Amino acid sequence: MSLEEVQDVRTPDADTAADTAADRTTGSTTTATTASTTTGTTSADTGTEADSATTGAARKRPGGGWAALRPLLLRTHFYAGLLIAPLLFVAAATGLLYAVSWQAEAIVYSDELTVDRVGESPLALSAQIAAARDAAPRGEIVSVWPAPDAEATTRVIMESPGLPEGETLTVFIDPYTAEVRGQLATVGDALPLRAWLSEFHSSLHLGEFGRNYSELAASWLWVVALGGLALWIGRRRKRASELVVPDRKATGRRRTLSWHGTVGLWAVAGLVVLSATGLTWSRYAGENIGQLQDRLGGATPAVSASVNGGQDGGADEHAGHVMPDGTQMAPPAPTADLGIDRAVEAARAAGVTESLQVTLPSQGKGYVVKEKDKLVPVHLDAVSVDPADARVMDELRFADYPLLAQLTRFGIDLHMGMTFGLANQLALAALAVAVMFLVFWGYRMWWLRRPTKDRALSVGRAQPRGAWRKLPVTLLLPLAAVTAVVGWFVPMLGISLVVFLVLDAALGFVAGRRARTAADTDAETGAETDAEAAPIAV
Questions:
Q1: What whole-number distance in Å separates Cα of residue 320 and Cα of residue 312?
Q2: What is the DSSP letter of 245?
Q3: What is the pTM of this model?
Q4: Which residues is 158 bridged to in the sheet?
Q5: pLDDT digits (tens, 9 = 90+) for 394-432
Q6: DSSP letter string over 336-368?
Q7: Helix locations, 61-206, DSSP H
Q8: 129-134 long-range Cβ contacts below 8 angstroms, 24+ apart
Q9: How far apart are CA 310 and CA 312, in angstroms?
Q10: What angle do CA 277, 283, 286 make, to 5 degrees?
Q11: Which end of the chain, N or C, is less surrounded by CB atoms within 10 Å?
């Protein structure tokens, strides 16, 4: 019988006394570990006396409710923490680097991002674009980001031959002098440093295979976080303050557990949000989330940029028609273009004014002018402008987004550290540091509660097998159904859980066979000894 089960039948005073005794005799405590995150811990063996003293009381405890569920949570928390914690630690460490990359980017690329001197008024965007085209004649301009404030440069985004897929060439232009401040390969709005760290965080630069690590970590993070929260709140304690404040008087494993639990309690909300938002753009769970969001009417809308409503492109009556050979004629490019300056003026007149991103016209499509200010309050409105007459063809306001689309936008931007700017980035850094400490404390508790008398290099034991068999059917069936649904919806969680169960069953089978073999050997040895000791009948 494990001491986690012993703890279930103790009074608070006896619980504390037993923990103290365990620290004194074996270097480990007897309380169950629980934190709201990463590493599971269970109690150690502290001797047969404690087991024999409480076996009768534990057997009398009813098997329903929290008493039945707690051993299962302990075992799940233990194995999830033990096996997934390294991935969580890596995700936290790389996430910490990404959180500080925003400020590092402003320092490393200050020449490209800022001007030497603020002028009286910026030049026309067309003049700035001409300077960028001269600096990179092989590039094809796809969008322009006008300087968002007086000290910033304008970004001219180009598709350029020789760049990897997903990357673009950004030319930085001084809006007052049209001086080229620099050229960098970028991914979206991320400059090389942040783009490298973002890929490092999501895939460790191992490509699609590497993305499995981050999805696996995100899939389990909310499980160990909420499971740890339940275990920590359900733990017996003398003072209510020990729930939210570390016990500084504790020693040994109890002190580590106190820090593990309280820090996890304070971090649990942020960790669940990080897990949920990280899954939204993961490879497998992200696809399921996207499909569910679409079915619930929460897909992110887009402004229509088709000239003349996408009917005929405004020039050719055969545009978009299917030809006799089966091919379809593409809409022609606009026959007239009043220029980007007129398009931006029209967008500003329509209320699209903050931190603009202008996509240039293409075949059958006009200008698209979007706001990209994701700080609260967000400015994400968009309009499309007809290049022939600067007429606003379509408008899309962020306030008109479906609620699910708005929440998805907020969640992703929170995860990336944009919604609240520096405060958001500091919060992300704090959560990353918390996860790393929680992992360290969890492994430390696992080490501290190892048996030291027999084997110096042994480690702490897990909660005994068979915890699920102690659950009442009224709790077991709903729990199994929810687990199956969540495992299907979050595939990396479901697959890894099946692997854990198969591995655990195999280990249990091997351990059972060894125990039976040892028992048979002892029985045979005992029989032989008795035969030798008996008098020989003549």
A1: 7
A2: S
A3: 0.80
A4: 141, 169
A5: 999 999 999 999 999 999 999 999 999 999 999 999 999
A6: ----HHHHHHHHHHTT--SSEEEEPPBTTB-EE
A7: 65-108, 110-113, 125-135, 192-203
A8: 129/156, 129/340, 130/178, 131/173, 131/178, 131/179, 131/180, 132/156, 132/158, 132/171, 132/173, 132/180
A9: 6
A10: 40
A11: C
